[in-house]
Amino acid sequence: MNQSKRKHVLLIVLLLLIAVVSVGYMKDAGQKAKRTTITLVLPQNTKKELSQIQDGMHDYASNANIRLDVWYKKKMLANELEELWKEEEKNESKGIIFVYPEEYLERKKGGYNNKNVLAITDSMKEEFLYTASFQNVKEETYRLPVSETLRKQVKTGAKKEIYVENIYKLAYESIRMMHTSDQLKSIALKPVRMDKAGIESGKYDALLAW
User: What are the backbone dihedrals phi and psi of residue 131, each rounded to the nearest 5 degrees, phi first?
Assistant: First the structure.
């Protein structure tokens, strides 16, 4: 192969490498451009269990390539909610999920009518347009983790059954809905009914692993 042909081949190889690198860069840039931001506000000081909520949020966010903008609040006034949303709009956040706002957010006459806000709450359901909570049942409910004492009571028949609120699933479904829906709506999950047969069969092992 003469010198001219060798240079021609090298030029073709170089152009192919540039094309491959460019396509990879454009694909990566496109994926980053499509990444959704969702704002999460958590209570700074609380006795409530937050690990399952955080795990549910982070698991979905990781799988869906979502960026979580996380805030911790000890106290929050009504006007601060509006200020927070204006700031998050600049970050192109799709919406805000408030976790247990009753722990830090000021109660406002007439409630909060923000269409881009979802509240995971036990006692502020009437103050938000959209909330994530559990359906009311006549029986007493428990939240994960289920203690060994409680499991033993079911196995021995001291309790016929128990109803467990899966807070991990509530958090996961909350962020999934905000990510995939153009219009928010309220979520009301049904507590999981657990009886002796179900526990002994291993049906609830994944849930009880918490």
Answer: -135, 160
